[in-house]
Protein backbone atom coordinates (compact mmCIF):
# COMPACT_ATOMS: atom_id res chain seq x y z
CA UNK A 1 0.00 0.00 0.00
CA UNK A 2 2.75 2.42 1.00
CA UNK A 3 4.72 1.51 -2.14
CA UNK A 4 1.70 2.17 -4.39
CA UNK A 5 1.19 5.54 -2.72
CA UNK A 6 4.83 6.47 -3.28
CA UNK A 7 4.61 5.52 -6.98
CA UNK A 8 1.49 7.61 -7.40
CA UNK A 9 3.20 10.57 -5.76
CA UNK A 10 6.21 10.23 -8.08
CA UNK A 11 3.92 10.05 -11.10
CA UNK A 12 2.02 13.19 -10.09
CA UNK A 13 5.30 15.00 -9.36
CA UNK A 14 6.70 14.03 -12.78
CA UNK A 15 3.60 15.27 -14.61
CA UNK A 16 3.63 18.52 -12.63
CA UNK A 17 7.33 19.11 -13.34
CA UNK A 18 6.87 18.46 -17.06
CA UNK A 19 3.92 20.84 -17.20
CA UNK A 20 5.93 23.56 -15.46
CA UNK A 21 8.85 23.04 -17.83
CA UNK A 22 6.64 23.21 -20.91
CA UNK A 23 4.72 26.25 -19.67
CA UNK A 24 7.98 28.09 -19.01
CA UNK A 25 9.01 27.94 -22.67
CA UNK A 26 7.34 30.41 -25.02
CA UNK A 27 6.85 28.53 -28.29
CA UNK A 28 5.95 31.32 -30.70
CA UNK A 29 5.63 29.70 -34.10
CA UNK A 30 2.82 29.90 -36.67
CA UNK A 31 0.48 26.95 -36.87
CA UNK A 32 0.33 26.79 -40.66
CA UNK A 33 3.02 26.88 -43.32
CA UNK A 34 3.47 30.05 -45.41
CA UNK A 35 1.50 32.12 -42.90
CA UNK A 36 3.07 35.36 -41.65
CA UNK A 37 2.88 36.98 -38.21
CA UNK A 38 4.43 40.03 -36.56
CA UNK A 39 6.90 39.14 -33.80
CA UNK A 40 6.47 41.14 -30.60
CA UNK A 41 9.23 42.00 -28.14
CA UNK A 42 7.91 39.36 -25.72
CA UNK A 43 8.20 36.64 -28.40
CA UNK A 44 4.45 36.53 -28.97
CA UNK A 45 2.92 36.55 -32.44
CA UNK A 46 0.43 39.07 -33.80
CA UNK A 47 -1.82 38.00 -36.65
CA UNK A 48 -1.54 40.14 -39.78
CA UNK A 49 -4.31 41.34 -42.09
CA UNK A 50 -4.86 38.31 -44.35
CA UNK A 51 -6.19 39.36 -47.74
CA UNK A 52 -7.38 37.16 -50.62
CA UNK A 53 -6.98 39.22 -53.78
CA UNK A 54 -9.43 38.41 -56.57
CA UNK A 55 -9.61 41.67 -58.53
CA UNK A 56 -7.22 42.42 -61.38
CA UNK A 57 -7.72 45.71 -63.15
CA UNK A 58 -6.46 46.74 -66.56
CA UNK A 59 -6.28 50.42 -67.43
CA UNK A 60 -5.63 51.58 -70.96
CA UNK A 61 -4.93 55.07 -72.23
CA UNK A 62 -5.17 55.26 -76.01
CA UNK A 63 -3.94 58.42 -77.74
CA UNK A 64 -3.27 59.15 -81.41
CA UNK A 65 -0.14 57.21 -82.27
CA UNK A 66 0.41 56.18 -78.64
CA UNK A 67 -1.12 53.86 -76.02
CA UNK A 68 -0.33 52.78 -72.47
CA UNK A 69 -1.53 49.78 -70.49
CA UNK A 70 -1.37 49.16 -66.73
CA UNK A 71 -2.34 45.90 -65.03
CA UNK A 72 -2.68 45.83 -61.24
CA UNK A 73 -4.04 43.62 -58.46
CA UNK A 74 -6.43 45.58 -56.24
CA UNK A 75 -8.15 45.01 -52.89
CA UNK A 76 -10.05 47.05 -50.29
CA UNK A 77 -9.82 48.93 -47.98
CA UNK A 78 -7.03 51.42 -48.57
CA UNK A 79 -5.42 50.83 -45.17
CA UNK A 80 -4.83 47.79 -43.00
CA UNK A 81 -6.21 47.65 -39.45
CA UNK A 82 -2.88 46.19 -38.28
CA UNK A 83 -0.48 49.05 -37.49
CA UNK A 84 3.16 48.33 -36.62
CA UNK A 85 6.35 50.28 -35.98
CA UNK A 86 9.00 50.80 -38.63
CA UNK A 87 11.37 48.35 -36.93
CA UNK A 88 8.87 45.47 -36.82
CA UNK A 89 10.03 41.87 -37.30
CA UNK A 90 8.05 38.97 -38.68
CA UNK A 91 7.86 35.18 -38.58
CA UNK A 92 6.85 32.76 -41.32
CA UNK A 93 6.59 29.00 -40.96
CA UNK A 94 8.12 27.11 -43.88
CA UNK A 95 11.82 26.39 -43.57
CA UNK A 96 13.14 24.68 -46.70
CA UNK A 97 16.50 23.60 -48.07
CA UNK A 98 16.56 26.61 -50.42
CA UNK A 99 17.41 30.29 -50.16
CA UNK A 100 14.38 31.90 -48.43
CA UNK A 101 14.84 35.09 -50.46
CA UNK A 102 13.67 33.08 -53.47
CA UNK A 103 10.54 31.93 -51.62
CA UNK A 104 9.23 34.89 -49.56
CA UNK A 105 8.99 38.64 -50.13
CA UNK A 106 8.05 41.90 -48.44
CA UNK A 107 6.38 44.40 -50.74
CA UNK A 108 5.40 48.07 -50.53
CA UNK A 109 1.80 48.58 -51.68
CA UNK A 110 0.44 51.52 -53.60
CA UNK A 111 -2.49 53.26 -51.89
CA UNK A 112 -5.35 54.69 -53.94
CA UNK A 113 -8.50 56.45 -52.72
CA UNK A 114 -10.34 53.38 -51.47
CA UNK A 115 -8.01 50.44 -52.10
CA UNK A 116 -4.47 49.08 -52.09
CA UNK A 117 -2.85 47.77 -55.22
CA UNK A 118 0.17 45.95 -56.62
CA UNK A 119 1.39 47.00 -60.04
CA UNK A 120 1.81 43.87 -62.14
CA UNK A 121 3.09 45.50 -65.30
CA UNK A 122 2.94 48.77 -67.15
CA UNK A 123 3.80 49.27 -70.80
CA UNK A 124 3.47 51.81 -73.53
CA UNK A 125 3.76 51.65 -77.27
CA UNK A 126 3.67 53.61 -80.49
CA UNK A 127 3.23 52.64 -84.08
CA UNK A 128 6.98 52.00 -84.13
CA UNK A 129 6.97 49.47 -81.29
CA UNK A 130 6.24 48.82 -77.62
CA UNK A 131 8.25 48.64 -74.40
CA UNK A 132 7.68 47.87 -70.73
CA UNK A 133 8.26 50.71 -68.25
CA UNK A 134 7.98 48.76 -64.99
CA UNK A 135 8.52 45.26 -63.63
CA UNK A 136 6.62 43.22 -61.07
CA UNK A 137 9.63 43.03 -58.71
CA UNK A 138 10.05 46.80 -58.42
CA UNK A 139 8.00 47.01 -55.20
CA UNK A 140 9.91 44.25 -53.37
CA UNK A 141 11.99 45.39 -50.36
CA UNK A 142 15.24 43.78 -49.13
CA UNK A 143 14.96 41.70 -45.95
CA UNK A 144 17.14 39.39 -43.85
CA UNK A 145 16.17 35.85 -42.88
CA UNK A 146 17.22 33.99 -39.73
CA UNK A 147 16.22 30.51 -38.60
CA UNK A 148 13.58 30.76 -35.89
CA UNK A 149 12.38 27.91 -33.67
CA UNK A 150 11.98 24.51 -35.31
CA UNK A 151 10.37 25.26 -38.66
CA UNK A 152 10.26 29.01 -39.18
CA UNK A 153 12.19 32.10 -40.29
CA UNK A 154 12.49 35.45 -38.59
CA UNK A 155 12.17 38.24 -41.20
CA UNK A 156 13.83 41.61 -40.59
CA UNK A 157 13.68 44.49 -43.11
CA UNK A 158 17.17 45.75 -43.95
CA UNK A 159 16.02 49.34 -43.37
CA UNK A 160 13.35 50.69 -40.98
CA UNK A 161 10.03 50.81 -42.78
CA UNK A 162 8.69 54.23 -43.71
CA UNK A 163 5.06 55.26 -43.42
CA UNK A 164 2.92 53.21 -45.80
CA UNK A 165 1.10 49.96 -46.49
CA UNK A 166 2.96 46.65 -46.87
CA UNK A 167 2.36 42.98 -47.63
CA UNK A 168 4.26 39.75 -46.99
CA UNK A 169 3.69 36.78 -49.26
CA UNK A 170 5.13 33.82 -51.07
CA UNK A 171 7.22 35.37 -53.84
CA UNK A 172 5.18 36.14 -56.94
CA UNK A 173 1.83 35.31 -55.32
CA UNK A 174 -0.36 38.44 -55.26
CA UNK A 175 -3.57 36.56 -54.47
CA UNK A 176 -2.70 35.60 -50.88
CA UNK A 177 -1.26 38.52 -48.89
CA UNK A 178 -0.51 39.21 -45.21
CA UNK A 179 -0.80 42.96 -44.83
CA UNK A 180 0.03 45.67 -42.29
CA UNK A 181 0.66 49.38 -42.18
CA UNK A 182 3.26 51.69 -40.63
CA UNK A 183 2.18 55.08 -39.31
CA UNK A 184 4.19 58.25 -39.56
CA UNK A 185 6.68 58.70 -36.73
CA UNK A 186 6.08 61.60 -34.37
CA UNK A 187 9.01 64.03 -34.12
CA UNK A 188 11.31 63.11 -31.22
CA UNK A 189 11.68 66.76 -30.18
CA UNK A 190 7.97 67.35 -29.79
CA UNK A 191 7.82 66.50 -26.07
CA UNK A 192 11.01 68.39 -25.19
CA UNK A 193 9.72 71.43 -27.10
CA UNK A 194 6.56 71.38 -24.96
CA UNK A 195 8.73 71.33 -21.81
CA UNK A 196 10.78 74.29 -23.03
CA UNK A 197 7.65 76.29 -23.83
CA UNK A 198 6.14 75.41 -20.44
CA UNK A 199 9.34 76.42 -18.66
CA UNK A 200 9.45 79.75 -20.48
CA UNK A 201 5.83 80.59 -19.68
CA UNK A 202 6.42 79.86 -15.99
CA UNK A 203 9.44 82.05 -15.65
CA UNK A 204 11.88 79.18 -15.95
CA UNK A 205 10.15 77.01 -13.31
CA UNK A 206 8.71 73.60 -14.21
What coarse outline follows from CA principal-axis ratios?
elongated
Ranges where pLDDT stays below 50 over 5 or more residues in a row are 1-26, 189-196
Radius of gyration: 26 Å
Number of strands: 15
Order of helices and strands: HEEEEEEEEEEEEEEEH
Question: Strand share of the residues?
Answer: 35-45%
Q: Structural class, from helix and strand content?
A: alpha+beta
The tally of structural domains comes to 1
Gap from first CA to last CA: 75 Å
Helix content: 10-25%
Q: What integer is the average pLDDT?
A: 79
Structure, explained:
This protein has helices spanning 2-23, 190-201, and strands at residues 36-39, 45-47, 49-52, 55-63, 66-75, 83-84, 89-93, 104-111, 116-126, 129-134, 140-141, 143-148, 152-157, 164-170, 176-182. With 206 residues, the chain is an alpha+beta fold. It has one domain (30-185). The strands form two sheets. Strands 3, 4, 5, 6, 8, 9, 10, 11, 14 and 15 form a ten-stranded mixed sheet that branches. The protein has a five-stranded antiparallel sheet with strand order 2-1-7-13-12, with no helix packed on it. The longest helix has 22 residues, at 2-23. The radius of gyration is 26 Å and the shape is elongated. The N and C termini lie far apart (75 Å). Mean pLDDT is 79; it is low at 1-26 and 189-196.
Amino acid sequence: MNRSLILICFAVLSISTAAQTNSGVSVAEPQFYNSFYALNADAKLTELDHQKVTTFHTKTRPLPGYASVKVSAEFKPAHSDIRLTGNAQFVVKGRLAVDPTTVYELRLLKVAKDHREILMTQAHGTILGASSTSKFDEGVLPVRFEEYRANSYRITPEQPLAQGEYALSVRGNVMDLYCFGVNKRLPLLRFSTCLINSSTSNGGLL
